[in-house]
Amino acid sequence: MNDSRPRGPQREESATPPAYPRAVKRMIAYQIERELLRQNISRARLAKEMETSRASVNRLLDPENESVTLQTLEKAADILGKKLEIYFSE
User: Fold this and answer.
1) Phi-psi region of 68 (alpha: psi -120 to 50; beta: other; left: phi over 0)
2) Residue 75: which of 32, 37, 39, 24 has the closest Cα?
3) Burial 32-59 (b: 16+ CB within 10 A, else e)
4) Residue 24 domain flag
5) Of 5, 89, 39, 90, which is closest to residue 76 (Cα–Cα)?
6) 10 found inside a domain
7) Range of the domain at 27
8) Arithmetic mean of pLDDT, 3-10
9) How many structural domains compose the chain?
10) What mean pLDDT is predicted for residues 4-19?
11) Cβ distance 29 to 63 under 8 Å?
12) Is residue 6 part of a domain?
C-alpha cells in the first residue's frame, strides 16, 4: 500500500527567516544589559554570581554570538531576579 500522508513534523517553506535567531539574541542581550544597568551590576559581578568566567558573560551579552545555552540564560535571569519564558506561537 502506498500511503502518501506526511509523516513527522512538517515545516512551511517560509518557516523562520535566517535573520530571526540573530534578532532574538540581540533582544535577549539588550534586556540583560539593561537589567544589569538598572540594578547596577557589573559584568564581573554577574560572572562571579553565575560561577562562570567574564568571557562567558561577554559572549552572553554579545548580540552577534548565538551560541548561548538555555541553562546560561536561566542562570542569568535567576541572578537578576527575572524569569525566563520561552514559548511557541503561531
Assistant:
1) beta
2) 32
3) beebbeeeeeeeeebbeebebeeeebeb
4) yes
5) 39
6) no
7) 20-79
8) 58
9) 1
10) 63
11) yes
12) no
Q: Is the dihedral of CA 51, 52, 54, 60 positive or negative?
A: negative
Compute the distance between CA of residue 78 and CA of residue 2 in angstroms, rounded to an integer. 52
pLDDT in tens, 38-66: 999 999 999 999 999 999 999 999 998 98
For residue 25, which of 87, 67, 77 has the smallest C-alpha distance? 67
Name residues whose C-beta falls within 8 Å of residue 28's C-beta, 6 or more positions apart in sequence.
Answer: 68, 73
> Quick one: cell of 84?
525566563
Q: Which amino acid is at 57?
A: V
- CA 55, CA 68: separation in Å to the nearest integer? 12
Residues 37 and 24: their CA atoms lie apart, in Å, by 20
Q: Which residues, other chains included, contact 59 with Cβ-Cβ below 8 Å and sequence gap of 6+? A: 65, 67, 68
